[in-house]
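Readers of this paper often ask what the protein records in our data store actually look like. The remainder of this section carries one protein's record, kept here as part of the documentation.

:::
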Amino acid sequence: MVAKFEKALLWVIETICLALLIALALSVIYSATMRYLGSSPSWYDEIAIVLLAWLTYFGATYALFLRQHMSFGGIVTALPKYAAVALALASEFLVIGFFAIVAWYGNAVLAAAKWDSLLSIRWMTLDIVQSIIPVSAVLMIIGTFLTMPRALRNAAAGIDADHAEIEQAIAEAERENASAFGKDDHK
């Protein structure tokens, strides 16, 4: 059940990232075309900045769900089992605490931001623009809770996910090389 929820939420975040990327690309193409034709849109700069910021926050959330963010897995795997699990658990709660603070203060900013708007698009208030901060922080907290059991299992087993991924890529490349050289030998 939890795995299905995690997978569905990851799909939603991935879809949002893709939609933001497409919207950003289309706005850049439109703006470049209009500038070439001599009629540059006034809204482009602000919208591009907002889209890029939202894409960055949602992309970071996506990376957190996949556990592709920066970490020091080698330190955890070098420790004895119980110390590794304790350090991993402490780091998980530090991450949750950090994003709880970001969500809290990000939400506090929204109250002040609702009185301002973008310069070129007056109907878009800054609370809409800044809402990405608490939204992504809450999503990152949820993502940390959902992926925490896997991280703790890896810490207990002495598995560094980064090194495991590198070793898997090397093994696949070696298999591909072996099959390529095997085919060349028969020619």
